[in-house]
Amino acid sequence: MELSRIVEYAFFFGLLALSGYLVWLIAAPFMVPLALSAVIVTICHPLYEHIRHITPKQNKSIAALVTTVIVLIVIIIPLALVSSLVAREVVSFYQAMQSNPDMSLMTATTAFENVVQRFAPGFHIDLATQLEASGKWFAGNLGAIFAGTISTIFAFFIALVGSFYFFRDGKELLDLLVKASPLPDKEDQIILRRLARSVRSVATGTIFVAMIQGSLVAIGFSLFGIERAILWGSLASVGALIPGVGTTIVTAPAILYLFISGDVFNAVLLLVWSVALVGFIDNLIGPYLMSRGNNMHPFLILIAVLGGISLAGPIGFVLGPVIVSLFLVLLEVYNQYIVKQVQRISE
């Protein structure tokens, strides 16, 4: 190759790398809401296609607008409201513990400590102190994560606008990515199809079920006399992702609290509510939805959710498992296609 051609290529790729880096700096503040847009579009794309087929002349802009409005009403607004309410309840819970600790709660913690001492005499735990420390940590950290600040509202706005354009022009964007990818088009299509199936499976079969369970826990707590039901419901949603534990990590202490505080009637009702409704969702609807796509191990989903929340705030509840799904899909494609091709070439 001539020296002049090498210089031309070096200049071109250097300029491409520099411009790509500058584009990344420009787009980096919006990557999380845009990633949320991509997830929303992946999950709701069948709905968009259905709406597009019934619109006049199958107008993509009208279908994208209608689908985006549905997403706003069903997903964005509830998520923003719940995030704001959770932040307020976390802070109010810590402030209440500081100013006027609930004597019933103190009684419950003391009873729990006595049970522990009976079965494990050498083990000592000051549960009240641990609860206070946990409340302080939540107030200092999760309050900032879930707070309904202007930046969070703006992020939801970007996600909404991004969803509209991804609905309308998503196919063209994917075609552009496939053409730009150095992988064969067949493997690119396999990656995209499996990623979409995995995202829908994780979102509907695991995360959606966990949200339903958390919502039912919050409703049950509101009905049967447990304060700050939204906070406990949100924690129950995370607990629902823990294998073998589920929402029991939240409902069992609440039932014990009601029993110890003397409200036996509501304690029994909450027990029935937890076993009948929350358990029904976990044991019947959850497996049905998860059977419709690729499954991710529940413990891996838990780590992905917690890491996603730590990385991206409340949006990370969805983005974390999606990112892990992408990694697993790429590993699967590598093992099933690329490794086999390399083996055939070497033979």
Number of strands: 0
- Based on helices, strands and strand pairing, what is the structural class? mainly alpha
For the termini, the CA-CA separation is 31 Å
Shape: elongated
Strand content: under 5%
**Helix content estimate:** over 70%
Q: H/E element string?
A: HHHHHHHHHHHH
Q: How many strands, what sense, and barrel or not for the largest sheet?
A: none
Quick recap of the structure?
With 347 residues, the protein is mainly alpha-helical. Helix content is 84%, strand content 0%. The longest helix is centred in the first third of the chain and has 40 residues, at 60-99.
What does this structure look like?
By secondary structure, the chain is mostly helical. It has a domain at 187-347. The chain has twelve helices and no strands. The chain has helices spanning 3-27, 31-54, 60-99, 103-119, 127-146, 150-180, 185-223, 229-239, 248-260, 264-290, 298-312, 316-346. The longest helix is centred in the first third of the chain and has 40 residues, at 60-99. It starts with a helix and ends with a helix. The mean pLDDT is 76.
Task: Give structural attributes.
single chain, 347 residues, mainly alpha, 12 helices, elongated
